[in-house]
Write a structure and sequence with these properties.
This protein has two domains: 222 residues, 3-Layer(aba) Sandwich (Rossmann fold); 145 residues, 3-Layer(aba) Sandwich (Rossmann fold). Helix 3 packs parallel to helix 4, helix 4 packs across helix 5 and helix 7 crosses helix 9. It has 474 residues and is an alpha/beta fold. The strands form three sheets. It has a seven-stranded parallel beta sheet.
């Protein structure tokens, strides 16, 4: 936990269109956690985790949050912002216990929700505070129990939370603290309508905390609706990568990226590495390519079940897999200790995603490397990233790598081949269905199949307001 430079005040009142009384006081020096007036049981948990001094965002955010102020904070990935909102909430919950859910934390992804719950359990280990994570991909039964029993802190993704709100038990009338973590990512993922619906289910009188690594202009409309006279923290509207990250570019043809990655792994230049691809399809094929060449690898993306995603992430953290291939689903909020390397297999489309991707390394003031493979057709995206970073990133050429070699694997299957494969699969399915029907018909006592009705006599699907009910459950 390191010291920080003095805060810089930016005219946020003009950005927000509202009056702002003050920003956080400039502490000027690092302070111990014991000076933040947190509950002794929380300080005990913090000490057992090995932390003695708060990070800059924690030192800035905890005092006003303890005082009941709304907070709008922009902090770089890996800066400790999860504890910055959890600790003041936990302190207040301990001071005034009640048997109902009083704090709601909204996150964009399942993995981030699970990570925040794990952090909560670590910090509150010596307290009676309870928490639950509510997200899709798993059964609703245990989550329903969390609603009915009234856990103190609920950490949820917007979609699954709204699913629960449709049920009679799905009510949160006692919410006193609302947190939006990675708020900009939720907006990017199209959650803005869901967030506005959720706001109708929680009391208007509450404390609201906004935490994110970036604060793009579109988020300001939501901020004006949700925050009341907020304390503004950290004061760069565009977050920057952690200083401990060494960044480098590897120019390479698109079709040679997989071979280059394999070469770096085989030469031992990277041990455990998190690799980001642009699409789920590329993640699957890169995983297959690495596995074929004896590299222990797993992948994680939106088409994987929650159990598969959990196992892949846990296996990577434990060292079972040397490479975790992922889409941007894990680019936000996932804490992987001592991760030395991040590789952008594809250049991110927007600079914010680049910052979040490489922020998986060099967390908590550690150091790490972030390598980006750049094909000629990705130069425009790269220029935008360098513009945001305000510097030109160094280019690296790998010695003895054949940049003119014939590609060993193609990660993108041509569209015509993919369509042909789909048609072949459908044809096989129809053939199997016909064989199955023929076997049934040949069995003794089988009823003859009813003749198909003429097209004009077939019943039509009923409709309501012009839309058919085809596919609806009874």
């Amino acid at each position: 936990m390191g010291c920080r430079s003095p805060s810089v005040v930016i005219p946020w009142d003009r950005l927000l269109g509202c009056s702002v009384r003050n920003t956080v006081p400039d502490l000027g020096i690092c302070v111990p956690f014991s000076s933040l007036d947190l509950h002794p049981d929380l300080l005990r948990g913090i000490k057992e985790l090995g932390f003695t001094r708060p990070t800059p965002i924690q030192a800035d955010a905890i005092p006003p949050a303890l005082a009941g102020r709304d907070v709008l904070a922009c902090a770089q990935t890996g800066s400790g912002k999860t504890a910055a909102f959890l600790l003041p909430i936990l302190h207040n919950l301990i001071a005034k216990p009640r048997r109902t859910t009083r704090a709601l934390v909204l996150t964009p992804t399942r993995e981030l929700a699970a990570q925040i719950l794990a952090d909560l359990n670590d910090l509150a280990v010596h307290t009676p505070i309870t928490g639950a994570a509510v997200f899709g991909g798993v059964g609703m039964g245990p989550q329903e129990h969390a609603f009915r029993s009234g856990v103190d802190v609920m950490i949820a993704t917007p979609g699954r939370l709204l699913d629960h709100f449709k049920s009679q038990y799905g009510k949160l009338p006692g919410i006193e603290y609302l947190v939006l973590d990675e708020a900009d990512r939720m907006l990017d993922m199209g959650f803005l309508p869901d967030i506005k619906r959720i706001l109708k289910h929680v009391p208007a009188k509450r404390q609201t905390l906004f935490f994110s690594a970036t604060m793009p202009a579109p988020i300001m409309t939501l901020v004006r609706e949700m925050l009341k006279d907020p304390v503004l923290i950290n004061l760069e509207r565009q977050s920057k990568p952690a200083v401990g990250i060494t960044q480098a570019l590897y120019p390479v043809a698109q079709e040679l990226k997989s071979t280059l990655l394999l070469t770096l792994l085989q030469r031992g230049e990277m041990q455990e590495v998190l690799v980001f691809t642009r699409t789920k399809h590329r993640a699957n094929r890169l995983h297959a390519f690495l596995s074929k060449h004896g590299i222990p690898a797993e992948r994680i993306h939106g088409n994987r079940s929650q159990a598969q995603r959990t196992e892949a992430l846990a296996g990577f953290k434990k060292g079972k897999y040397r490479v975790l291939v992922a889409t941007d689903i894990v680019a936000r909020g996932i804490d992987i200790e001592e991760l030395g390397h991040v590789v952008n297999f594809d250049v991110p489309l927007v600079p914010e995603d680049y910052i979040h991707r490489i922020g998986r390394t060099a967390r908590a003031e550690a150091t790490g490397d972030a390598f980006t493979f750049v094909a000629p057709e990705e130069e425009s995206e790269l220029r935008q990233i360098e513009k945001v970073l305000n510097k030109r990133l160094p280019r690296v050429t790998v010695p003895d790598f054949d940049y003119r070699a014939k590609p060993e694997a193609t990660l993108e299957v041509p569209l015509a081949e993919r369509i042909a494969a789909i048609r072949a699969r459908k044809s096989d399915e129809r053939a199997r269905a016909k064989e199955k029907a023929a076997r049934r018909a040949s069995q003794p006592g089988a009823a003859p199949a009813a003749p198909a009705a003429p097209r004009g006599d077939r019943p039509r699907a009923s409709s309501a307001r012009g839309r058919t009910t085809k596919g609806r459950r009874p």
